[in-house]
Amino acid sequence: MSTVKPAAKPRLNSAFKQLMSLHWVMSACYLVLFITGTFMAQLPRELFIRGPLYDFHKSVAVLTMALLTWRILTLLRVWSKKYTKRLPKFTKEWYKNFALHATLYVFMWLVPVSGFFFSNSFKSNNVKFFGLVLPDVFPQNSAMVELGRSLHFWLAYTFLAFVLLHILDQKKVVRANWRRLTNFVGTKFPTSQKVG
User: Is the pTM of this model over 0.90?
Assistant: First the structure.
C-alpha cells in the first residue's frame, strides 16, 4: 500500500514573495516621488505648501533607500538559493534582462543620492525622515547647487525612461495584473444593473 504525499505548498514568507512585495511597494514609492517631484518643482517659493511637500518628498526618498537595501539583501538570498542549485542559461535574453534590471537598480540608488547631494549642497541638515533630521551625506556648497539640481533632474527622467522600458519588457505581467485589478474592482464595486 503506497501513500501519496500531498504537494508541498510554497511558504508564504518565501524570499521570492518578499522580493515581489518589495517590488510593488517600491514602485508605489517611486510613483509618489515622481509625482511630488514634478509638482513641487513648479510651485512658487512663497507658497506655504512647498516646504512641507519637499520634506515629504525627501522622507519618501529616504524610505526608498532603506527599502532598496532590504530589496538587495532579499535578492541576494533569492539568487543564492536559485543559482547554487543550477546556473542560469546565459542566453541573449538573459543578458538583456540582467542588463535592464542592473541599470534599474543603479538608478534606484543614483536618483535619491543625487537628491541628497542637491539638498545638502543647498542647505545643511535639510534632509528629514518624517521630521527626524538626518546627518548630511555631502557638505554644504552653494557652488554645487546647480550641478545637483541638474543631476537630480536628468537622472530622474532617465530612470523614468528605463522604468517605461521595463514595463514594455514585462507587458504580459502588466496585462495580467491589469486584468486582476479590473476583476477585483468589478467584484468589489459592481456596476448597477439597468432596470428595463
Answer: no
115, 137 in Cβ contact below 8 A? no
Q: In whole angstroms, give the CA distance from residue 85 to residue 68.
A: 26
Q: Hunting for cell 546565459 — which residue is that? A: 90
Any idea where the domains of the chain sit in the sequence? Answer: 15-171
Contact between 159 and 88 (Cβ < 8 Å): no
Residue of 168, 135, 1 lying closest to 160 (CA atoms): 168
CATH topology classification for 15-171: Fumarate Reductase Cytochrome B subunit (1.20.950)
| pLDDT tens-place string over residues 112-133 | 999 999 998 888 778 889 989 8
User: How high does pLDDT run on average in the chain?
Assistant: 84
